[in-house]
Write a structure and sequence with these properties.
Helix 2 runs parallel beside helix 3 (about 65-70), helix 5 (about 180-200) packs antiparallel against helix 6 and helix 9 (about 290-295) packs across helix 11 (about 330-345). This protein has eleven helices and 13 strands. It has helices at about 20-25, 40-50, 65-70, 115-120, 180-200, 205-220, 230-240, 240-260, 290-295, 315-320, 330-345; strands at about 5, 30-35, 55-60, 75-85, 90, 100-105, 125-130, 145-150, 160-165, 265-270, 280-285, 300, 320-325.
Length: about 350
């Protein structure tokens, strides 16, 4: 049975095209740096901000990896509540912070925080916007943000990759002394090659091996400081068919939405709007963990966003399931994914 979801496998050079996607990222701001991970990007941006107060105001619905650079830099972290189930943000625009950290969710325009970003910018508070989820939407970011960061490993079959963007001027610090995490690249590259062999039935006995390698690479990526994107990943990013990826993700998300439209037991967090580009299609389920297990039993691997790392009272953590809609899969795969869920609700 065909596997849907989970980690990317290695892309072959013949599937890359002759073009330059880096121009897309360079058009997002004045200065762009290609770094190892989202954590590295946040750390690099913090190096650019003169901040004696060190109070960051950030969402209580996020990944712990986004918080770590602030902890490591000695920041006092204050969280605002994000209620995605009712599409509401409880943000105190009078809060006296030194950095406002905004983001949006899953590539749907309904989730952006542009209104709040503008309010904090008007108070001369530095704004970092995590655009990982909206980076390929027609409106990829808020123009009022000072800095943009995005992890690109969520979108593409690359070994390392993130961007840090200064919207209005050049970064003070160059990355000439930043190094590539060679051990991570070697580990991830082998994992992705083995998974490719597994997916194409060339080596059906290697699953445990590539799973172990992926787990190892996830540990290695915690060594995030002063790391840049590796050259091979940068070349893949430059030459991958970005337009085709966006089109497939949109088509797949529409297929999922269409097949859930008459079911009251599934809450779609968002409906597709023109200009969106979904990273995943998030749904809310009362019996999320049971459904997720049933999907795994059928070789469908849907992640959750995210593990509740700080015991937040945010209900989204316990009920959200991220449905796969990426460019590796087609309409038939999406219908199978939905069918398994509907049969087990």
């Amino acid at each position: 049975m065909k596997e849907i979801g989970s980690e990317f496998w290695k892309i072959e050079s013949e599937n890359l095209i002759k073009k330059d996607n880096l121009k897309y990222f360079e058009n997002l701001g004045l200065d762009v740096k290609y770094l190892m991970s989202g954590r590295t990007a946040i750390d690099y941006v913090l190096e650019d901000i003169k901040d004696d107060k060190k109070i960051v105001y950030m969402p209580d619905y996020c990944c712990n990896s986004m918080v770590q650079p602030f902890i490591d830099k000695g920041y006092n972290i204050k969280y605002y509540n994000v209620d995605l189930m009712n599409n509401k943000f409880y943000i105190d625009i009078q809060f006296n912070c030194s950095i406002f950290f905004g983001m949006s969710y899953f590539g749907y325009s309904n989730s952006n925080m542009d209104y709040y970003i503008k309010k904090f910018k008007m108070k001369n508070i530095a704004v970092i916007e995590d655009i990982t989820h909206r980076v390929f939407c027609k409106k990829s970011h808020c123009e009022s943000s000072n800095y943009l960061i995005a992890s690109l490993r969520k979108w593409f079959p690359i070994y390392t990759g993130a961007i840090a963007i200064n919207k209005n001027c050049n970064f003070k610090k160059n990355i000439d002394n930043y190094t590539i995490n060679e051990e991570l690249v070697k580990c991830k590259k082998l994992a992705m090659q083995l998974k490719r062999e597994y997916i194409y039935n060339e080596n059906i006995d290697c699953k445990d091996m590539f799973l172990d390698l992926f787990n190892k690479s996830n540990k290695l990526i915690t060594d995030y400081k002063n790391r840049k994107m590796d050259d091979e990943s940068l070349e893949i990013l430059k030459r991958i068919d970005l337009e085709d990826i966006i089109r497939k993700r949109i088509d797949n998300s529409k297929t999922i939405e269409k097949n859930f439209v008459f079911n009251d037991n599934v809450k779609m967090l968002y409906n597709y709007k023109d200009g969106d580009c979904p990273l995943f299609v998030p749904i809310i389920l009362k019996n999320r963990d049971y459904i997720r297990k049933k999907l795994i039993d059928n070789n469908v691997y849907c992640p959750i966003h995210w593990p509740n790392f700080n015991n937040f009272r945010n209900k989204t953590y316990a009920n959200e399931l991220s449905l796969i809609c990426d460019q590796r899969f087609d309409e038939k795969d999406m219908k199978r994914e939905v069918k398994i869920i509907l049969e087990n609700i």
